[in-house]
User: Fold this.
Amino acid sequence: MKIARLKTEIVNLPADEPLGDSPENPNATRPIVILEMATDDGIEGIGVSFFGGPMTGALRQAVDELGALTIGEDPSRPERIAIKLREALGTSVLGGPFTLAYSAVDMALWDMRAKALGVPLWKLLGGARDRVPTYASGALMRGLSDDQVVTSARKLVERGFRQMKTQLALPGDTSPQREVARARLVREAVGPDITLMCDINQRWRPEQAIDIGRRVEDVNFFWLEDVTTADDFAGLARVTAALKTPIAGGEYVYGIVPFRHMLEARSVDIPMIDLVRVGGITQWLKVAGMAEAFNLPVVSHLIPEVHVHLIAAVPNGLTVEYMPWLRRLFQTVPMPVNGELVLPTAPGLGLAFDRDAIKKFKA
Ligand SMILES: [Mg+2]
Assistant:
């Protein structure tokens, strides 16, 4: 089994918000690089990458060039391929574009590997559970008005979600009092039994996080996420030590090394691993293992269609972020039912690109 060919495309997916019907920017799009690889005996694998913004063309080029270096290699050996690519690229591998591009390749390798073995990926990787909790994300954003956020929050509850995430660090003229009022408003809209998370997206200083975090303790957030600059490991540790509410973080960092610093410094209670920025499935699993050794759960960021496999595979997977940016790319995807995702039984990722959608949204 050798990698024989690959193809990439860019698709501009609509930035819609199907969970609560409340998009922050209704006319925006998200550029996604898609990758299809195939072996000489006809096994196909798929990968995706994004975060390229206006550099998405360069990201696609990077996926093409890295992918070309895998031709003739055995996709069951992702670590061997990673070594070859790192050696080929020398010191340029540290940083964004290599890691973002390599993630798409690594995803496709694992898809092919699991298909060659005839097993769904989550089973190949450990198979800890065959269903996992999931939470609605992207529907209760800080840019919505109070009325919009309440309407959207009630819809999520009506639609069966048991866990959901909102945001603080409100835009414009805000204050600790205004932040607390918004947090209480969302809690009242969903009721006391819903697991409610809250994302700050790095917008507070550590002392603000401690101040506002203490004021919202009675809102009973399940976690506060990215409360300050993502690589301020000491600042994060100060907030984590000061608050009763657990602190989540990790989606913004690249590769596995920052997680070591984060865990050693006890910067977060709940490491969040982004499949694309961490460098693919191979690297994602290493971070999950590090966290397990520190007695910590892990959570995912975006791409629930792939992350569902990873959270279910490992013993310390906590919940899957259901933020369906990519849903239109695929023919069928695991859908949340009563707050859970059931793992697919098809070999590999169990995903196939929807050719009609790709044609429609092709850049
Ligand atoms: Mg986040």
Notes: The longest helix spans residues 96-117. Residues 3-119+353-361 form a domain with the Enolase-like; domain 1 fold (CATH 3.30.390.10).
